[in-house]
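stage 2 :: seqdesign
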């Protein structure tokens, strides 16, 4: 397994895990495998935590992408129509991170569900526009 750099930490939020306990066990498994995921008690951007919505912060890089894909698959699996992914607190996104967004939600999207990406910062938005070109059932808002 590759070494994890200090800045390569994916952040999930306690409030999201409280409404989706099945995702908490996935986060625990991913952490045990060595991917750095921090569960933050900090408030997100004020958007309410509800099922079929996940906030991600920190960095979605080569080092966190495999864990992010697993967490996204767990969070989106019980959803039917729309899975909302709030990236308002995501500071860095690489193309490997875009691949994780797509692979983690593939099963959900193949069943007709729509991944709605909300509130990305401008640098993250630019990477998303490049990395999600032609993706099926993905909306960038």
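stage 2 :: out
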């Amino acid at each position: 397994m590759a070494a994890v750099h200090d800045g390569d930490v994916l952040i999930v939020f306690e409030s999201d895990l409280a409404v989706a306990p099945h995702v908490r066990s996935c986060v625990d498994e991913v952490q045990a495998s060595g991917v750095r995921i921090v569960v933050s008690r900090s408030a997100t951007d004020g958007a309410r935590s509800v099922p079929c919505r996940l906030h991600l912060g920190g960095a979605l890089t080569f080092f966190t992408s495999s864990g992010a894909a697993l967490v996204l698959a767990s969070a989106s699996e019980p959803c039917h129509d729309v899975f909302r992914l709030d990236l308002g607190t995501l500071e860095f996104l690489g193309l490997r991170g875009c691949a994780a967004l797509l692979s983690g939600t593939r099963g959900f999207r193949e069943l007709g569900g729509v991944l709605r990406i909300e509130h990305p910062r401008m640098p993250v938005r630019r990477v998303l526009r490049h990395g999600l070109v032609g993706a099926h059932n993905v909306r960038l808002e």
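stage 3 :: structure notes
- Residues 98 and 128 are 7 Å apart (CA to CA).
- The first strand starts at residue 10 and ends at 13.
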